[in-house]
Amino acid sequence: MYLAIREMRFAKVRYSLIATIMLLIAFLVLFVTGLARGLAYDNAASIQNMDATHFVMEKGSNHRFTRSQLNGQALAQAGVIAGEDNVQPLGVKMTTMKAEGLAGKLDVTLLGIRPEGWLMPQVTEGEGIATGETGDVLVDRKLKDSGIGLGTVLVDQASGLKWRVSGFVSHESFSHSPAVFLNEHDWQQLQTGTAARPEAGGAEEDGGAYSAIAVKANKHQAEQLAAELPDDEIVTKSDAVSAIPGYKEEQGSLLLMTIFLFIISLFVLAVFFYVITIQKSSQFGILKAIGTRTGYLVRSVALQVLLLSSASLMVSILLVQAIEAVLPDGMPFRLQASTLAYTSAAFIVMTLAGSLFSVWKVTRIDALDAIGRSAA
Amino acid sequence: MRHRLILNEITHTFEDGGMQRTVLDRLSLQVAEGELVAVMGPSGSGKSTFLSIAGALLKPTSGEVLLDGESMAGKEKQALSDMRLHKLGFIFQNANLIPYLKVEEQLMLVAKLGDMSRAKANDRIGELLHKLGLDHRRHAYPEKLSGGERQRVAIARALMNDPAVLLADEPTASLDAGRGMDVVGMIAREAKERGKSAIMVTHDERVLSLCDRVLYLEHGSLIEKY
């Protein structure tokens, strides 16, 4: 440790240059990770906010809410297995709407829920919706930017149905489109209005038609559901989220960027320390000749890497938090403590891996080189 | 009289282009306490090999090296490393100080490696630097020192752990005549005063008068000439 710290003190410029590069890379890693998490949340917020562990969907729907159609029978059956309180019907439909009095159209996702159930989001402004009242909806706050306010009437382009905005919710979206919540009755009305598959439901006497059933179930119950509902499939929440259109693609490319940044930092560090180690090989030879153990020198190199990477990481964490504070509200950025912790850990591990090559080199240096050498 | 370094029938051979080359041929040498032995010889005569074997850096093909009565034969790398740390003091051709350590830190490093207590190390550093006339250079980096000063620091570093044997590899190669005499004079004096056995490999005939014995390495053995 004696050597590592004194060398860094002596070659300040050299080590601060590499620390700066590491800082920038660490910052980029954290920023892209935050952006990826932010986009993920922005994309699938409504599903992620749901307190469900599994979703029951129609077989062959490929885990997609928008493709699946279930009837009330499935809901009743699921209720028997998982418990009446642990199942909630859910309707999901992406559509285009017009707001009365406003030019332009809006892409939204309609979510049909039971207002008394546990899928009901927190109302942040205005009034909630209830089962008895029809024609009222809750919309995501983001729609305010399009000029929608309390009482605005929305017209569905496909069915021509009209709803009045009674309240706002925040952070509710599906496939990046703002969510519009309606009660079960309005949802069924929408289904009968546009139903093309009467056999799959849509008829009120069947008990309604839904896209999926949100379930709170343990592993055992999930297996039982799969066995009891042969025509349907049980999808975990994370699978359902991944199947949201665009979700996997978006996350995939961001993940690729993050992985590349890790690999780049690995190589930058590996090359830097390797070159420095080669430069110092005669010094290492001398140190070994006067009786320094190889383990001591290896620890010295590893300590330098650890100091550099953790110092760079700490500064970049501060930077990212400063940036996060000044980012505009609309920017999807989300860096939770847990994400921050494992990204930082991965970064440190990567940099240490980058030093392995140099460590190997140090162990190969022969003390014999020190004798008969004219240059240090 | 005690011999702190004894080389018994050392033979060293290696393969060179399919030919078996014998660098050292049943070489024997005993260096007494307080004695400085100069080893001369043309390039390629095996001076470096000789010094590497005496310095526990290279294992001879056959023969035995005894350091303070302790044999090096059959020792593991780490044990040899510890032996170099505690029993041997190296003085290299160009001083070969660590560029990022100040003068006192060069010595402190050796003390730390040898697990010397801090107080004792500080005393010893003070004493050695004073003795070698480096008091005013205590906090200087090697790049700020003159060639002679650097070599004096190297001598102090070699003496730090109070070794049995001093090994010097052409310590005057990069110094002018006056400085060279000073440096070898110091090595001779330290060997005498502290009862160490010292070997110096050199080309420099001017400093031979300061040595107790002058040996020539020819055909793999050491020959005494007067």
TrEMBL record, chain A:
Keywords: Cell membrane, Membrane, Transmembrane, Transmembrane helix, Transport. The keyword Transmembrane applies. It is a multi-pass membrane protein. Its main location: membrane. This is Putative hemin transport system permease protein HrtB. The complex is composed of two ATP-binding proteins (HrtA), two transmembrane proteins (HrtB) and a solute-binding protein. Part of the ABC transporter complex hrt involved in hemin import. Responsible for the translocation of the substrate across the membrane. The chain crosses the membrane at residues 254-276, 296-320, 340-360. It is found in: Cell membrane. It comes from Paenibacillus taihuensis. Residues 256-366 form the ABC3 transporter permease C-terminal domain. The keyword Protease does not apply. Belongs to the ABC-4 integral membrane protein family. HrtB subfamily. One of its GO terms (cellular component) is plasma membrane. It comes from the Bacteria. Pfam families: FtsX (PF02687). InterPro entries: ABC-4/HrtB_transporter, ABC3_permease_C.
TrEMBL record, chain B:
InterPro entries: AAA+_ATPase (IPR003593), ABC_transporter-like_ATP-bd (IPR003439), ABC_transporter-like_CS (IPR017871), ABC_transpr_LolD-like (IPR015854), MacB-like_ATP-bd (IPR017911), P-loop_NTPase (IPR027417). The keyword Transit peptide does not apply. GO terms for molecular function: ATP binding; ATP hydrolysis activity; transmembrane transporter activity. The keyword Nucleotide-binding applies. GO terms for cellular component: membrane protein complex; plasma membrane. Keywords: ATP-binding, Cell membrane, Membrane, Nucleotide-binding, Transport. Residues 5-226 form the ABC transporter domain. It is found in: Cell membrane. It comes from the Bacteria. SMART domains: AAA (SM00382). Belongs to the ABC transporter superfamily. HrtA family. The complex is composed of two ATP-binding proteins (HrtA), two transmembrane proteins (HrtB) and a solute-binding protein. Part of the ABC transporter complex hrt involved in hemin import. Responsible for energy coupling to the transport system. This is Putative hemin import ATP-binding protein HrtA. It comes from Paenibacillus taihuensis.
